[in-house]
Amino acid sequence: METSDFDYHLPPELIAQRPPDRRGDSRMMVVHKESGLIEHRKFSDLGDYLKESDLLVLNDTRVVPARYFSNDGRKEILRIEAISPTVWKCLVKPGRKLREGKTIEIGDATGTILEILEEGGERIIEFDREPDEENLGHLALPPYIERADEDSDKERYQTVFAKEEGAIAAPTAGLHFSDGDLEKWNHAFVTLHVGIGTFRPVSVENLAEHHMHSERYTLSPRACEQINSADRVVAIGTTTVRVLESCFEQSGNPLKPQTGETDIFIFPPHDFGVVDVLLTNFHLPKSTLMMLVSALADRELIMKAYEEAVKEHYRFFSYGDCMLIV
Q: Residue 111, SS3?
């Protein structure tokens, strides 16, 4: 498999710049991986494809304000890890202005560049005091959303069940659910803090050469018990898939409770040990997420589905419509 095998043409106007007026108003393409049937439905029809014995598994990570601008507006940092309250690992822009020893002022806090990491070019920045996250931190909306974050994003770029703080980006398949939706179905929560990998494209043609960044995850004893006893596991989002399949690689079946970091890279062919059904949004061309969904269903079927989604004017990416693979 090569990266170019997962490319498709996407007209820019199909990239959702804002969420729908109400959660759950999205369209839902249903892809039947055995028969190849493709249906055009709505997210509100999700229950038509679920069984009473199914278990929905969702990622309860909470997005934190990770994007900061310097007081002069000329520099920008994206916190990808808080090593301590005042020592951060960050992506920076522009890199030429933030070399070792240089400083950046964010509100009353002054940060000094201690180190430039060899792989990826991230900076270790030490601040003289903790920057004011509440007033100066911004949500790191994906770069394909071509606008600044707004007050409304604080609520809409967060799932209604978000609990465990630590993500840079939202687990977007979960954004379709409204308060009360989960009461209809058996469900469990796992945690994966969506990290820098979300912003990194695949830069090599040979998939075997691509290295995923690690992301922190937790599978609790309660969730483990629920998943091990489920007849069919319905993963809500690719981040949930990464947790479940990582845990399967670590412990086999049955799953065991665990906390750790995963750099799992799922692409065809892949034998899924836990996940049976997947609800996910539409993903960027040539992305690792396109590769993951193509591993659950046939690559040719997924490429056909994406071609049809473009033709039918589905809304793409974080604030867009969704796909159910059954």
A: strand
